Structure formats: C-alpha cells, structure tokens
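Hi all, posting the design record for the shared folder.

TITLE: backbone redesign
STEP: 1 of 1
STRUCTURE INPUT:
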C-alpha cells in the first residue's frame, strides 16, 4: 500500500468524527495520527486529569477539542489518582496482583482519591456522531461503552485498551468488552499490541518492562461486522474504507467495503481501488453524482 485513500478521494472524502476517551498524550502523536494527516477530521477528546487536558488544548490544533470529563456510565464514582497519572483509574489498582510482576505495582500506587461524577457518551452535547472511538481509561472501558449505546450502534471502528487479567479490583476484562461491542454490531478485527511482564524474580532478557509469556493488557481494534456492511449509508462506507486503509492498512477489508459501496450506491470505486493496489494508475475515482 503506497497511497492514501482519503487523499485520492479528495473533496469527496467525508469528515471523520474521532472521539478520544483518555486522551493523555503519552506519545508524540495519537494512535489515529495517520487519519489526521490524510483525511478531514473532527476530534473531541476527554482527559480528566486537568493538567493533561490543558496541555492538549494548549497545542491549538484545528478541529480538536478536549474536555476534562470522566467518561463512564453516568454514576458517581471514586477516582484513584496514582503516582503515575497514566495508571489512574475509576477502579482501584490491585496491588497484591500487580506485585507479582516486575515494575507494575511501582507505577500504580494510589496517592489520592476523590469522588467524581461520570458522564455518559450519549449525553454529551459535543458528540453528535462517532466514526472512530479510541479509548484507554485503565479498566473502565466497559462502563464507557455502556454509557453510549445510541452512539455505538453507528460507530464504525473502536480502538480500545483491554485487560486480560485483573490489574484493577473488580474490573471488567477482555471477554466482557468483546461481548458488549459485538452486541453493537462491531467485531474484532485485530490485536494491535499485546503487553505483559515477567513474574518476579525472573526478568526477561529485554529488561524489566518486557514480558515472557504472560499477556496482561493490549490494544484491540474492532470494525463493523462485515456481514452488516450493506446497511451503512454511503458516507459511512467511505469513512470506514478510509479508516481501514489509511489507519490500519487493512486493504482486504477496505475493498470489501467498497464492493458494497458500488453495489448499493453506484460508482466504480472497487475496480479503481483494486487497480491502485496492483500498481496501476486508473486516474481519479468515479463516484455517483450527489
């Protein structure tokens, strides 16, 4: 893949609505940076650690707004601020479990707790639509999903952190998250990362922050169930194809979406796309009028 689908679509590429829950800038660029570079986007992000939220807004990026809301199921909860803000959570870290592994308990020490009011995604006026939902809120992802059933029913892609073991007390695990997202017509597409640590006192050859076999958490990407693509509106199909191609490099899924686009909305996008994939230059894409 040597081309951007969004850029080749040009003005016909619809604006992609990105919601970033847990937007703390741990890296120089967010996970969805390839989409920001290629397609028109609107970003609404949520980062409840006020200092981190202020940093994000201070960057002054166009069409990106960050709010200091705690996203959840709409109830009042206890927020556990830790010595490393990236591990802070609405769930209490399970120190006894984390202490079995190298370097985890040391970065998950609770230094302060406070009662907070969570907000449901469905109730936030700044969100009218979600195309891509990126979420990383340390075990509270399922609460956020349950607070946004209306929006999730039309969401095209979810990039979520999941845990495979209880790093936080009474937290939902991967199986719970998977069942909820499938209920909204999303199916597992790929594991982006799988992370873990070695059990003490063994240390992996790569160092204390590496694992050996035990997977503890990771990033998982969900896309619309391929058996339901025919029901998507035309603009949603184009957005989904762009997400699959430009963000994930999933050209097989992208071409499947474009097959449905041509079949149900007209045009010759699929043939054009397949020619581009094989190195031909078929010129500009052909979309139906309007």
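Okay, here is what came back for every position:
SEQUENCE:
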């Amino acid at each position: 893949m040597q081309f951007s689908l969004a850029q080749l679509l040009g003005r016909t590429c619809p604006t992609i609505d990105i919601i970033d829950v847990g937007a703390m800038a741990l890296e120089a660029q967010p996970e969805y940076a390839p989409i920001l570079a290629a397609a028109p986007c609107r970003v609404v992000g949520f980062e409840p650690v006020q200092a981190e939220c202020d940093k994000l807004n201070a960057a002054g990026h166009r069409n990106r707004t960050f709010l200091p809301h705690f996203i959840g199921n709409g109830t009042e909860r206890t927020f556990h601020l830790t010595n490393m803000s990236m591990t802070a959570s609405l769930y209490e870290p399970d120190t006894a479990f984390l202490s079995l592994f190298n370097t985890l308990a040391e970065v998950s020490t609770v230094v302060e707790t406070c009662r907070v009011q969570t907000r449901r995604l469905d109730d936030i006026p700044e969100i009218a639509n979600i195309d891509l939902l990126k979420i990383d809120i340390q075990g509270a992802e399922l609460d956020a999903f349950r607070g946004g059933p209306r929006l999730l029913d039309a969401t095209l892609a979810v990039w979520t952190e999941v845990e495979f073991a209880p790093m936080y007390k009474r937290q939902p695990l991967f199986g719970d998250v998977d069942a909820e997202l499938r209920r909204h017509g999303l199916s597992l597409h790929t594991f982006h990362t799988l992370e873990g640590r070695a059990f003490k006192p063994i240390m992996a050859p790569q160092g204390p922050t590496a694992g050996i076999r035990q997977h503890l958490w990771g990033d998982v990407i969900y896309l619309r169930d391929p058996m339901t693509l025919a029901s998507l509106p035309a603009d949603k199909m184009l957005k989904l194809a762009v997400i699959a191609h430009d963000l994930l490099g999933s050209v097989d899924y992208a071409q499947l979406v474009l097959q449905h686009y041509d079949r149900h909305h007209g045009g010759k996008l699929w043939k054009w796309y397949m020619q581009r994939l094989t190195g031909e230059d078929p010129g500009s894409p052909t979309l139906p009028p309007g």
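COMMENT: Residues 251-265 form the longest helix (15 residues).
Let me know if anyone wants the other runs.
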